[in-house]
Amino acid sequence: MLSDTLKQMKADGVQRALAFVTSAYSSYSSCRQYREDIARAQSEAGDGAPVVDKIRAFHNHPGFVEAVVDRVQNALAKFPSERQEAVHLIYTAHSIPMGMAQGCDYEKQLKETGRLVAERLGHKNWELVYQSRSGPASQPWLEPDILDSLREIKTRGEGSDVVIAPIGFVSDHMEILFDLDTQARELCEQLGLQMARAETVGTHPRFIRMVRELISERLDDNEPRLVLGALGVRPDFCAADCCPMPRRA
Questions:
Q1: Any domain includes 81
Q2: SS3 of residue 127 by DSSP
Q3: Residue 104 CB neighbour total at 10 angstroms
Q4: Rg for the chain (alpha carbons), in Å?
Q5: How far, in Å, CA of 101 to CA of 64, rounded?
Q6: How many domains does the chain have?
Q7: Is residue 204 pLDDT above 80, yes or no?
């Protein structure tokens, strides 16, 4: 656990460290909360705890985008070439409460990643949806849900081929396996939709190289800060009021 790790690092004489958070996007739960966890662990480690700097968000880094493009391309290739242009490309990300979304760039960054990937694929038929919602039903969360989106595609009658690409995640963990490979696939079978699921970036070589590039740029100011799209490079150090905790009713 983080607190135990920082205590061990302190005992080993480690004074500074970089933290790579495996979320490409900015929100309270995907950025600030990790920084708060680090600060709490430093406090528990006591005087002399290592200084820990978080590496910037990477939703528009070429390494992330190129790895996603490759994963989606592989999923599209599961359909006959004459049907690929009409495939519904559905990006998914973890839903968050609207109160949290309104105080950060999470949704904007997800749409930017989706656009960058679609442009490189030359694929115009795409949308962003959400999964893994939790919490009380009375609290509004980002929508639409992946299952509602699939039902809407069936209702519109605009083709039956779908590729689901979980761009909000970097590994094929339980939420992917249950929400998409189980629930979404079962619904697709009921609706008569042909579904292929793109892998997450995982250990894709371009993604792994991106991690090294992010480390290098923090260690050497002369290293290029690679970025795509209009949102630019995320700062190394977040503003004091960045991605606040959402107010609770």
A1: yes
A2: strand
A3: 22
A4: 20
A5: 22
A6: 1
A7: yes
Could you count the other beta carbons within 10 Å of the beta carbon of residue 134?
A: 10
pLDDT at 248: 60
| DSSP sequence for 199-211 | PP-TT-HHHHHHH
Token digits of residue 106: 């999470």
What residues make up the domain containing 97? 64-197
Contact predicate 200/170, CB 8 Å: yes
Written as one string, the DSSP assignment of 133-185 is --S-TTS-BS--BHHHHHHHHHHHTS-SEEEEE-TT-SS--HHHHHIIIIIIH
Residue type, 75: A
Instruction: For the beta carbon of residue 15, count every other beta carbon within 10 angstroms.
Output: 10
Please compute the mean of the pLDDT values over residues 93-112 and round it to a whole number: 95
Asked, for residue 228, whether it belongs to a domain, the answer is no
Instruction: Read off the tokens for 44.
Output: 């528990």
pLDDT 10s digits, 16-40: 999 999 999 999 999 999 999 999 9
206 belongs to a structural domain: no
Residue owning tokens 């839903």: 95
pLDDT of residue 238: 85
Which residues in 48-135 belong to E strands, given as ranges?
51-54, 88-94, 126-131
CA 5 to chain CA mean position, Å: 25
CA distance 72 to 75: 5
Domain holding 160: CATH number?
A: 3.40.50.1400
- The helix-helix angle for 62-76 and 106-121 (nearest 10°) equals 60
**Can you name the residues that pair with 92 across neighbouring β-strands?**
129
CA distance 209 to 217: 12
188 within some domain: yes
